[in-house]
Request: fold
Amino acid sequence: MAPKESEIAGGYKGVSRATTEKHMKQKINVGIIGLGTVGSGAFRILRDNAELIRHRVGVPVEVTKIAVRDATRDRGVAIPAGVLTTNPSQVIDDPNIDIVIELIGGYEPARELILAAIARGKHVVTANKALLAADGAEIHEAARRAGVSIGYEASVGGGIPVIKALKEALAANRILSIYGIINGTSNYILTKMTEEERSFADVLAEAQRAGYAEADPTFDVGGIDTAHKLAILVNLAFGAHVNLKDIYTEGITLISPLDIDFGKVLGYKLKLLAIAKMHEGGQAEARVHPTMVPDDYPIAKVAGVYNAIQIVGNACDDIMLYGRGAGSMPTGSAVVADVMDIARRQILIEPSRRAQPPLLELPAGNATSDAALALQPMESIVSLYYFRFMALDQPGVLAQISGILGRHRISIAQMIQRGRKQGGSVPLVIMTHKALERDIQKALVEIKSLSCITEDPILIRVEGEEP
Ligand code: HSE
Reply:
C-alpha cells in the first residue's frame, strides 16, 4: 500500500513518533547557482509544479536563493524579491539551504563551489558533465565523506532518465555495451547535412544563427561534449572511473556530404556515436567518433536535436532511451527530479534509515576500486571500416590500393567508384570486413603516399554486421 502523505513527510512506518518529529522538516530549501537555460527551466518547474512536487515529496520545495552573474538580465521568469544575489557564497553559506543546484557549467568556479557546498553538508544537483567527467571521482569522494548526495541526471541526455536507469532500473545487469547519440547539436547538423545535402560549414552557420549551436561550438562538434557524457555513463555502467584522455575522441568537422551520400548508397546513416563495450575477459572500450550505422537500426532513425542511448545488458538485452537531450524544460525536469529524490531519500528520512553510502552515489557496478578503468587503446579495436580515396582515374590504381590493404590483412567487402573525370580525380569508396585499427592506420599511411592519391583519405568506422 502506498504511504500516506503524512507518513512520507514524517518518515516511514515503524519509525518512532519522537524520532520522526525531531527529524521532520517542514520544507526543503533549494539554492540555485546559475540561471541560464537549464536554471530557468528548473525554476519554472519548481514554481509551476509546486503543488505536485509538494505532494510527491511530502513537504514544499522552495527556491530561496539564486546566484547569478548579472542580476539585471531579463531571463523571462519572475523571481521573487530577495531571492536573487550576485554572490554565490550567499547560497553556499546559507545554513537554511538543503540542496544546492549548480548550473554554471565549466570547471572553475563550479568545482570550488560544489566542494564548498559539500563541505557545508549540502546535497548538490548539477548538470555539469565537463566537471564530472574530469573530477567526478574527487567530487563523489568528498560527498561520500560528508554523507551528502550528488544528483547528476541532467548531465547526460537532458530529459532522458539514463543515469537513473543505469543506477537503479538496470542494476541487476552486467552492462555489455552502450551506443549513444548524446550531443544534439552534432545530431542536428548531421541530420540537416543528410536531408538537405549541405556542407558542414553551411549547416553549422545556420544553426548558430538560429541559436541551436553555441557561438563557440568546439565542444559539441569536436566530440568533446559527447566524450564527457560517455565518461559519466561508463563510470556507472562499468563501475569504475575512466580517464577522459583515454577516450578516443573525433568530431564531425571533416564530414562531407559526399560520405553521407555514399553511406546512403551502402545502406548506412552517419551519426556521431559514443560507444562503450565491455568484452569478455574484462577489456573495456570507450570511444567517440562519426560512425556509419545500418539504416534499419533504431539509433539510425534518431534525427535532429534528439538524443538516444542504447544499452545492452546481459539480462535485459537491448533497450533504447530516447528524448530531448537539451533545452530548458527537459533538462530542468532532470534537475528537479534529482532534487525531489534527494529530498525524499536523504533529507526527509530518519538518518539511521538512509542508505549508507547514499544510494544515489552508488554506481551500478563495482565502485570499490579507485583505479581508473584501463581502456583498450584505439589501435587495438576491431571494426568495420569505410574508406574514401580521391584517386586519379588511371590503370593500376585499384591494384595498388587493394595490394596495400591485402598486405595489412584488410579484406575488402564492397567497393564503389563513381564518375569519370578526364585527368581529374574520382572518389573510390571501399568497405572492409572486420579489421584491426592498427592495420588500418598503417595501410592508410602507405596509401596516402601513393602518387595517384590526390587528397587525404577519409576513414569512417562502421557498426553493424559484416556486409
Ligand atoms: N550542447 C549539448 C548538445 C547540450 O548539443 O547536446 C547540453 O549537454
